[in-house]
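[agent] plan:
  1. take the single chain provided in the ticket
  2. run structure prediction with default settings
  3. attach structure tokens to the ticket
  4. add a short note for the reviewer (M.T.)
[agent] executing step 1
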Amino acid sequence: MTAAFTQTILIPIQGELPQLLNASSGDTAWVITITLLVAAICTPISGKLGDMYGKRRIALILLGVLILGSMVAALSPTVVPLIVGRGLQGMGMGVIPLGIAILRDALPADKLGSAIALVSATLGVGGALGLPMSAFVTEHFDWHVLFWFASGLGATAFLLIITLVPESKLRVGGRVDGIGIVGLAIGLTGVLLAISRGNDWGWTSPRTVVALAGGLVVLLVWGWLELKIREPLVDLRVSARRPVLLTNLASIAMGFALFSSQIAFPQLLELPTEVGGLGKPLLQASMHLMPAGLAMLAMSPVAGRLSRRWGPKPLLVSGAMIMASGYAIAVLSDLQAGHILVINLLIGIGIGLGYAAMPTLIMRAVPASETGAANGLNTLMRSLGTATAAAVIAAVLARYSVDLGGVDVPSADGFEVAFLFGLGAAVLCTAIAIFIPRSEPVVDPQH
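[agent] step 2 finished; step 3 output follows
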């Protein structure tokens, strides 16, 4: 929850950051981008380190870095130290797959599905709290207070883990794959930079093309080397197993579907009515988005029971279909605030089911010694989906724009195309999930 909160607290005010920091919009865009980049790189690495040296130990280190980053951001008067703090916060996102992996080590099999559903739901709760809190604090206080609150949440989580979470005795040991870490970091940085900054740089500009092509080449070489290393950072042979591969592909599509709404709906709610928006103030707009996270939390016990009864695959299929129904309403309706509330509830329910199912599908297909690394890679796939959605939906809304007082703002046609992209991603996720083979849980001897 803390990790998700820190990732979302600046989303409602990202348009105001140039004024708040007295910097260009190009510079302040890095405040959002750096967290995404660092989180994407660190999640698979932290998962592997957790398998090697203990998940609890690595989780505590990452939370310590998150607390430090939050304090740096809270004390930053200008954009550069804020970017540094946000990068450190991004490292803390690696605690998410570790937290899910710890459940497999600490809980009996009959409790695992419900626990995964609950922990996955806290991602939505963190986001749901972050959006309205960011709006409220910005309207009434200094926005730096957001980061002091994040520091307090991180410190609370740190103390609770020390007090309550047992250290797993399951460790694979081995050596750190330094080449794998460097190769993955360079390759992902190139690809994600091109995706996240392509709208600003231009999709055919030399910077974008070089970053994307260079990142892809590095990742291809990295994959070839990983197949030859005895103790790789990411075991690509395990990742290529059909259940793991299809679940990760479905994760990309579901991440895209989720973030399409998070990019489009805030702008639609806040834009003036004369250009097709709903004219809501920042705090009201955030409150209309909050139910999605609460729906995720409410679905967690239901998801756990359904997973025990029918297995995780039907959960993922039904979650994607529910998300698709929400986007279908968005495409076919003349949207009002009430419609957006219902659509966000449907998206929250769908994400609650899907995010509960995906870690279980992954853990059923990999040995216990690779739980952290496999969940880290799955979290990376979700991040890749959200990053791609952020770029694509931003490009769509920029392409379909109208003039408002000398400023280009998204048009009604732009929002409709954005919702069509979200609908397509949800349908694609459904189709992929249908082909995930059923598998029996891998038996862990310690349980």
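[agent] step 4 note for reviewer: The first strand starts at residue 401 and ends at 404.
[agent] ticket updated
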